[in-house]
TrEMBL record:
Subcellular location: Membrane
Residue stretches making up the Laminin G domain: 118-285
Protein name: CNTP4 protein
PANTHER family: CONTACTIN-ASSOCIATED PROTEIN-LIKE 4, PIKACHURIN-LIKE PROTEIN
Amino acid sequence: GAGGWSPLVSNKYQWLQIDLGERTEITAVATQGGYGSSDWVTSYLLMFSDSGQNWKQYRQEESIWAFSGNTNADSVVYHKLQHSIKARFLRFVPLDWNPNGRIGMRIEVYGCTYRSEVVGFDGKSCLIYTFNQKLMSALKDVISLKFKTMQSDGILLHREGQNGDHVTLELIKGKLSLLINLGDTKTHPSNAQINITLGSLLDDQHWHSVLIEYFNNQVNFTVDKHTHHFHAKGEFSYLDLEYELSFGGIPVPGKSGTLSRRNFHGCFENIYYNGVNIIDLARRH
């Protein structure tokens, strides 16, 4: 009706769904009850999705399960989101409402268009970025990206050197594993290999963010806001890496187009290496 959304039946199986038309960064939500009525929602869940099929619940730390709603029909209850949602579809799911009325909602969503560069991998391809040694800062390396997949295994990132040194980021059984191999075990046996695993169920077809920073002998590995700080015993300057990064798989040396191990099958978004937008470069070159 004219006073807002009020479903015919008030029960736990109702929801109000919004299609924003494109992926949007949502920073806050606000609700009211039905205009001039005794219908208002006192608590609700907020769900989000890119496809309208596969939904995820938004969770704020101070209220894990639900957002507090309204206590009357007309006051506006505003919630700033602790971390923004990036999605095309939103669902408001009423949990409780005024016992002397029905479910009734007017809602406002705050945010802006989300700008992103996305590339899809079919499990048979990879993206190779070769960069100029002179542009390279030896002090620090920073790689960031988001990924989305239904596959529980796949290589996200690989970089290797001539003496067996390599850095590999791989999805194994839905968890992300960062493997740093320092090649020659005779020279520095104590830290021949560093293997850090973070996250779980990362093959849920939702976006997950990854940040890898390494400088000197310090590694910071972050997956979805969970960070593992690692201090290598030796010097990271041992890493004799080539000026080439591959995303989505490991190209087999000498056989162009051939890939080893499990390739990544899914999407990457906003890949950055030391501030360089890799997907944008690939599109332009």
